[in-house]
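JOB MANIFEST
job_type = single_chain_structure
chain_count = 1
residues = 399
[input]
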Amino acid sequence: MPRRNWIRLILFLAEIVLTIAYGFRPKPILVDTLAVQRGLMQETVREEGKTRVIDRFVISAPVAGLLRRIEMDVGDAVARGQVLVSLEPLPSIVLDPRSRAEAEARLAAAEAALRRAQSTTQAAQADADLAASELTRIRGLFAEGFASREQLDQAETEAQRTRANLRSAQFAAKVARFDVEAARTALKYSAAEGKTAPPEVVTLRAPVSGRILKIHRESEGVVQRADPLIEIGDPRALEIEVDVLSADAVRIKPGLPVRIERWGGDTALEARVKTVEPVGFTKISALGVEEQRVYVIAGITSPEADWDRLGDGYRVEAAFILWEGDNVLQVPTSALFRHKEGWAVFTVENGKARRHSVEIDHRSGFTAEILSGVSEGDVVIIHPNDTISDGTRVRPRAG
C-alpha cells in the first residue's frame, strides 16, 4: 500500500478514536451561580403575628336579668358615659294548673292562719285588760291595808304576763298578714297576668370613648351574672402580638426595631419591641411538633396615616432586627454546605468547581456574612448537589 494511503488510514482511525473519546468525556454540570457582593445585611427573626387593641373593655352583666336588644353594630362609635346595655328584672314564672292550685291553697291556709292569729290576739287583749283591772283593784286595797304585799306582787306579775302574751299575739298576727300577702303575690305576679308596674332597669354605660369591637349577645333574652355582653376599645391604639420560639425570645430585648410586613399595605411599617413576656406556653406546630413559644408585644411607630386601614385582630408578619450592618460581604445561605468542622462554598474558576472553606458570622434568612474564604466578585454555586466536588467541570446556567 502506498505511503499516502497509510497516512490517510492513520488519520481516519485517529479521528474515530478522538470522536469516541469526546463522546465519553463527562459533560459540564449546569449550575446556578451568583457573585459574592457587599451590601446592607440584617439578621432577623420572622414570625407571624396579629394586631390587638391596647385597652379593651368588656362590659358584662352585673346581675342576672332580661337583656334588652342591643341596637348598635360593631364599629359604631360610642362616647364615655353613653348607655350601651339595659337590663330588666327576670320575669315571673307562668303558673300551670297544678302550681296555681297549690298557690291558691297556700293563700287559703295563710288567710286561715291570719284569722286564728286575730282570734288569739283578741283573747290576749281580754286577758290583758282583766289583769290590768285586777292590778288596779289590788293596789287600792293594798293602800287601804286590806291586801297583802304578796297579793300585789302576784297581780303585777299577772299583768306583765298578759301584756307579753298580747304583744306576742300581735306579732303573730302581723306574720300571718305577711304570709297572706306573699301568697297573694305569687298569684298576682304570674307572667300570664301581665305587668302591673314599670320594671326597674339597670343601665350599663361606656367607661371610655371608642368603638364597639364585639357584641357577644345582641338579641333580647335572659343573661346570667358576669356574662360578657359587649366589648369596646379604641382601634387607633393598636399594638402587635407575636408568638416566637423561646430560643429566639431570649435574643429579643425591649426597644429592638421591628419591621411589619405583609400586612396589606404598599410599604413596611416600623415598630419597636415593648415587652417580652416572661412566661412561655406550649404550641403544636403545623407539623405536629410541640414548641415552647413566648409572646412579644411591639408598638407601631410609623405615622398613623400609614396604617389607618389596620384593625383589631389583623394578620401581619413581624421581622425582629437583631443585627444590622452596611457594606457586609455576603453570600446566599443556599451556597453554604458543611465541610469537616466548618462551612464551605464552591466557586467557578476556569469552568471548574473549586471548594473554599469559609468563616461566617451573622446569618439572615437568605444570606450569611463572610469573614474569610472568598472575595467580592467571586462567583459561587448556589444549591450545590452531591454530583459536584472539587474540580468538577461546571457550566453556569443561562440567565
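[summary]
The longest strand covers residues 315-332.
The two ends are 56 Å apart (CA to CA).
exit_status = 0
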